[in-house]
Amino acid sequence: MKPFFKSQALRFECTRCGRCCVAGNGYHVYLGRDEVARIRDYLGLSTGWFRRRYLYRTEAGDLVAACQEDGRCVFLGEDDRCRVYPVRPVQCRTYPFWPEVVHSRAAWQRESRRCEGMDRGSPIPVAVIRARLDECNTLAE
Ligand code: SF4
Ligand code: SF4
Fold this sequence. Notes:
Blueprint (H helix, E strand, L loop, with lengths): L3 H4 L2 E3 L20 H11 L3 H8 E3 L5 E3 L24 H5 L4 H4 L2 H7 L6 E7 L1 H15 L1
Antiparallel strand pairs: 1-4, 2-3
């Protein structure tokens, strides 16, 4: 049987509402070492200051972006725009085309309650979705 994202055209158009940049239900923005370095350099900060101010280590030992008191990602500006957009993490660049979201209709519909851009706009070509999934998979390697 074809995977869900191949059997049905998935539409997506980001409205820049910023909801995916707000934590909840254990949601974190995971950061690889290269991503940490890229974002730190982009902001022009020292390693120590950047780690203290912007990063957080979960109980499981994963490095993630810290949250502001209201749950907003530490990189989300007051104008609801990402302050590190050109170097944002793979997790953010590939959203909502994550393996756990596109594998079934139920998962896609569940996620669409958080993201108003899903089921909006034009269908996204399967090749584009495939490329995003491949990027996500590099994180798991
Ligand atoms: S890094 Fe940027 S795009 Fe990713 S969650 Fe934070 S503010 Fe949003
Ligand atoms: S929740 Fe969806 S529509 Fe809103 S900013 Fe994130 S990707 Fe865009």
